[in-house]
Every structure is written in C-alpha cells, then in structure tokens.
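Re: that chain you flagged

S.,

Sorry for the slow reply, it's been a week of failed gels. I finally had a moment to sit down with the sequence you sent. For the record, here it is as I used it:
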Amino acid sequence: MFVVIAGSVRRLVLLVLASCLLTSYHVPDPTVKGIITDMLASINGIQTLRYNLKFTERIKGQMKKSESSIKLQRSPRKLYMHLKGPELLWIEGSNNGDALVNPNAFPYFNLNLDPNGSLLRTDQHHTINEVGFEYMAEILSYEIKKEASHFDKTFTYTGLGTMAGRECYKVTISDPAFSFIDYVVKKNETIITVAKKLRLSEYMILENNKGIKDYYSVKEGMTIKVPTSYAKFTVLYIDKQNMLPIGNTVTDDKGIFEAYEYHNLQLNSKIAPEEFTKEYKDYKF
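Prediction finished late last night. Pasting the structure tokens below so you have them in one place:
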C-alpha cells in the first residue's frame, strides 16, 4: 500500500512540475531587426509575383481608391496589369521602353506610353517602375542606414495583426521630427531624380511645391521643399509565412498619404511566357 501511495505522490509531483514548466515557458517575441532582415531577404528572393492590389492614395487633397490585378517577373522584368478596364504590358528591353496600354475606352486603340510620362502618371503616386516590393525595400534599407544609431526608436514591433486574411507581424516606422526642408536643385535634376536620390515620394514633393506644375519643371538653382523622410509614420504588415510586406499605411503631416493591401499573393509561382505577350488569350490588346 505504501509503495502504491508513494508512486502516486511521485507522479503527482511530476505532473505539477511539468505543468509549472509549461506555464512558465514563454516563446520570446521576434525582434524588429530580425523581422525586417528576414523581410528584406524574402524580397530579394522574389522571382515572380501574382497578386491583387487594393490601394488608397491622397490625390489633390482627396482620398482615391482603386484596384489592380498584377503579374510580375523580376528578371528580365516583365509586367502585366489590369486596372478595372485598362490593361498594361511592359517588357524590359522591348517597345522602345514604352508600355503597351489598352485603355478599353476612348480612343479605343492601343497606346505606347512612356512609364514616366504625364499620361501614365496622372493622378498616381507611383509609376509602373515601382510595382512590386523592391521599391519598398530600397526605401527601408535607406532608412535603416540613416537611422542606424537609433534604429530601435525608429522601428518598433507592435505585435501580431491581420491583413488580407493573413496573420502578420506589425511593425511601425516613425519620424517624430518629420518636416519639410529646403533643397537646392542641381544641374540636370528633376523631382524624379531628387526623390530617387533621397528615397522620397515624388508625388509628395510635387504636392508640397504648389508653383511647380510637373516633375520636370524645376531648374538648376531653384529651391524646393522636400520631406525629411519618406513618411512621418508608417505601419507595415509582414506576412508570417512568406515574410513579405502585404500591407502598409503611410502618414505624413496631413494624415494618411497612401495605403496598400496585397491580396491573393502567389510568390514564385510559374508564369507562362505567353502571359507576357499581347496575344495572350485572356487579354484584349
């Protein structure tokens, strides 16, 4: 009887100890530096992408929403976009660098348009050159180097969230001192080249320089206003499984500047070569 009781007591003690160990064990939260590092590595590993993009952009003081369906091959770069009517096809090294556009509206024939030209840039924050995640990675890499001495104050992991039905790491990027400062335009510079050099939004620069009518109408020696960083506050939603930034909201001194959501994203799935031709059966070029 004593042996049975003693054995039962031992088993009970072991169960209590195991329970305490399981209760006290805590999986540490991921570090923000680790999350960003893994995200940049995932972006670097992209070969192809398919996704539906929902976006909101502030255009002339009004929040405008739209959607597009995108197929992207990274190298050589090939892009197909369907924007609720219009279709666009751009292939690196072909068509004299122009995008083939079927407006599906007047003038009812295909157009060959410069990706940086005014027709394709009208009421858009970005050009087709920024489609995908590489543009975001460039901006983040630049900010990481610029804010290296106080990385943990600029970048913060705020826990888990959900975007596009996916569980995500939520990371914020803040610039409490965000403001607009003077910049003197140098020889042969445009708003586009200034923004690219400083990793800023071209549209934000244009929006905050009322006397400038377009991205090319600045001259050497002219003083313009540029932001101190891409945004005052950014929220990133980074997919836990593929470590890609499938959602982001960008805020400036006026409020929300732009927001993007990536739905039904397929990473490195096969895209047949004919899907990047105007003759493809599902297109109407």
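What I noticed first: Residues 1-7, 12-27 have pLDDT under 50 and may be disordered.

Talk soon,
D.
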